Amino acid sequence: MTGTITVRPLTATDRCDRCGAQAYVRAVMSSGSELLFCAHHWHDNEDRLREVSAAIHDERDRLVAVPSTAALEER
After folding, report:
1. 68 or 13: which carries more pLDDT confidence?
2. pLDDT at 7 (0 to 100)
3. Residue 74 confidence (pLDDT)
4. Pairing of β 53-58 and β 34-37
5. Cβ count near 45 (within 10 Å)
6. Residue whose C-alpha is closest to residue 57's, from 28, 15, 20
7. C-beta atoms surrounding 73 within 10 Å
8. How many domains does the chain have?
9. Other C-beta atoms within 10 Å of 46: how many?
């Protein structure tokens, strides 16, 4: 029997299990437990987590580039 994993969006209250920063990636293990990661710690552990995770919910696309100070001064 295969279960369905329900994915809820990550919010500002979801924090990285390593450092406490806002989480942008959820790795769900086959046991159903979840690990949450900021973009930095996901990058550090991505290869191994892709091997052992049953599902990965990645919202790093929500991270956007912040305009440089020079770009703000031109406005």
Report:
1. 13
2. 73
3. 57
4. unpaired
5. 15
6. 28
7. 8
8. 1
9. 16
DSSP string, 2-25: -PPPP-----TT-B-TTT-SBP-E
Which token pair is 28? 């769900």
Beta carbons of 46 and 52 less than 8 angstroms apart: no
Instruction: Write the pLDDT tens digit of every residue in 4-47.
Output: 556 789 999 999 999 999 999 999 999 999 999 999 999 999 99
Is position 19 within any domain?
no
Which residues are CB-neighbours of 28 under 8 A, at least 6 positions away?
5, 34, 53, 54, 55, 56, 57
C-alpha to C-alpha distance for 41 and 57, rounded to whole angstroms: 15
Please identify which residue in the block is written with the tokens 């912040």.
Answer: 66
Residue-range definition of the domain harbouring residue 53: 25-73
